Amino acid sequence: MATRVLLLMALTLYIFPIATATFHVKGSVYCDTCRAGFETNATFYIRGARVGIQCKERKTMKVAFYSEGVTDSTGTYHIEVENDHRDNICECLLVKSPIKWCSTPDSGRDKSSIVLTHYQNGIVNHLHYANAMGYLRDEPLPECHKLLKYYLADSDV
């Protein structure tokens, strides 16, 4: 009998997760040293970059949640988000680069959408990964010409 009760409680929590879930968002921030628009062998990850997570209400687009974090020595950030944000549109955003010569956000790689809900989506993990976001170096490195030529060697372009 006790086993059935425990099984029923576990099933109920799986179907109706607790609304005060804590999500752990993980992602990285890089410096695009070749201004290629993507990560290359010359890319490095930025320590001390500030990243924000912003959730907006779907109907009014008012900010419902905002929090910031900082990247570690590997350029990785970990930000905790309290509560389920099922009625919100959430994204990770670049806030500030600590490197003056690599501080222009790369358009298209300056934010990353993130789902912060368990409601009817089949996601049960509390760890959510965001796409890598990047800044552009002011001037590309001299060796980038060869590197980009190498990347395009197998291209149909």
UniProtKB/TrEMBL annotation:
The keyword Signal applies. Keywords: Disulfide bond, Signal. Residues 1-21 form the signal peptide. Pfam families: Pollen_Ole_e_1. Belongs to the Ole e I family. This is Protein DOWNSTREAM OF FLC. It comes from Glycine soja (Wild soybean).
